[in-house]
Design a protein that fits this description.
Rossmann fold, 13 helices, homodimer, 14 strands, seven-stranded parallel beta sheet
Chain lengths: 312, 312
């Protein structure tokens, strides 16, 4: 289960698109993904793991291409009835998606770890990439609002559509969260460690908060390459740019370089950010400039080609 | 919420059919049902209350007429995907049914009692009958197998299709289970208390095991009428006849009379059991003989008419 060439630290949609391109150019059996679970939550009794599921659906070509999350060809019978009953419907759950959450919840109730269930799900979706939750312990992203109060990630991200100012982010449980089986070995054994173009604060941040993960990246810094989720000063999706600014970082590839400087030796930036090359290098990172817009699988795959060529 | 004329002690399908007939001849606003929850269980993370749901679906004409449980016009998208994933599919769950379980589970997770959720569901289904769980406390039917071992109710009833010999039945939690709000008052205030044609051991038994319920029936015995779930020595549905024999009772209306003699003054039996009238009366119960086969709503309603006429 270890000794995979390329291990990717992954959040949701951006990471999933990168991984889908990766397996076009590299043997999926030689790829692993360590996935954020600090967005996981329980709703309607179900254990929902949004990032794991987005990676699963994308790698199996089951993802809804319109949204980048959820399943293609999905039906909505359950949610329609739930709405009729006056139930909470702020988090979109399609019928097949619900089945997956029910499966996960029941397996965990029967004693399986999230690591084990995730393997079972990958098998059911015929996915060769090893998908691993970063931890099997409780880990929850909490955001402090500038206006006061602390909220859960899904409240921030989905219910409020990240349209609120944030003054701090923490990961509840981080002090006790141990890396899940396989995680540390996957980092140690990989030839290349990729930090996917995910939100550095709320997607990659929780991975780094799990005991030992950040230190292993520091120790293996030469083999770590990050892909900037910021292009032209903006997040391709989600609130990364706003969140970076609110937390005192620069919302640019230079800001990303500064955040990752101690754990990554290389940063992949988009062609439009070429003028930041000197600043990235000044931050101590080698800079790969290429097209990073993953509008389809072939463009995602092209990033991997550039990245592997530069790292070889 | 109290002061209803007729309160019915109810299990699942048989009770639901009786209640559906009852509201044809009596104002639903004047009817209450105290429902068994010892069959409730958690599967896939969902809080499932089979008897409450069967009563709800039947009273709202949403029940599947083929089975007597589950919903008519149901779709099965979730279960199909759950099966594909290798999940547990021994308990049939349609999409709309799952939505109801998700609603209940989430409301309880947010702090609502089962009593409160059940009211909300009744409102959503436009049901005027007051449907009450007998208790909001844990109460679980456990069956000891003759071959050894103890199993849960749904394992017995659904997974094994009640095709096993049982040597004992107990209700875990009964010593601590308090009656839910409204239950005792409903019994005390009713003009007529009906014990529905449900399994006396595993459907009515748990109701009687909740603190105070049996004593209230004893105290109000003259106003209690039971409808025999045994017709011609057989259960109309389910394992009541076999279970009665295995636990040392007679699988006949006389056996039912003996079981209910201390809590009910009247027993309704089917025409085919007319020859048991003397035995029922010898057990100390008044005997109403009528057609008790509830093959449609009008025949269910006819039982109520006979019963109310005899009790008036």
């Amino acid at each position: 289960m270890t000794n995979r060439d390329i291990v990717t630290l992954a959040g949701g949609v951006g990471a999933a698109k990168f991984l889908r391109g990766l397996i076009e150019v590299h043997d999926p059996d030689q790829c692993a993904a360590i996935v954020n679970v600090a967005d996981d939550f329980r709703l309607h009794g179900l254990h929902i793991s949004p990032d794991l599921d987005t990676v699963t659906y994308t790698l199996s070509d089951q993802v809804n291409p319109e949204t980048g999350w959820g399943r293609v060809g999905e039906s909505w019978s359950v949610l329609a009835e739930l709405e009729r009953l006056g139930g909470e419907s702020w988090f979109s759950l399609g019928d097949k998606d619900i089945a997956l959450h029910m499966f996960r919840t029941q397996r965990i109730a029967k004693g399986a770890s999230l690591t084990e269930v995730t393997k079972e799900i990958a098998t059911a979706f015929d996915i060769a990439v090893e998908i691993m939750p970063v931890t099997n312990d409780p880990l929850e992203t909490k955001l402090t609002l500038t206006d006061g109060g602390e909220i859960d990630f899904q409240d921030y991200f989905v219910a409020r559509q990240h349209d609120v100012a944030v003054s701090a982010v923490r990961f509840e449980g981080a002090n006790e969260a141990a890396p899940a089986p396989g995680v540390i070995a996957a980092i140690d054994d990989a030839t290349t460690i990729v930090i996917a173009p995910s939100n550095p604060i709320v997607s990659i941040g929780p991975l780094l908060a799990v005991d030992g993960v950040k230190q292993r990246l520091i120790d293996n810094r030469d083999r770590v390459v990050a892909i900037s989720p910021i292009v032209g000063g903006k997040a391709l999706k989600g609130p990364a740019d706003r969140l970076l600014r609110e937390l005192g970082h620069e919302a640019s590839v230079t800001g990303i370089a500064n955040i990752y400087a101690d754990i990554a030796a290389t940063l992949v930036i988009d062609n439009v950010d070429e003028h930041h090359r000197n600043a990235v290098e000044a931050a101590g990172l080698r800079c790969i400039v290429t097209d990073t817009i993953m509008s389809d699988v072939s463009r995602s795959a092209a990033i991997t080609r550039s990245l592997l060529e530069a790292m070889s």
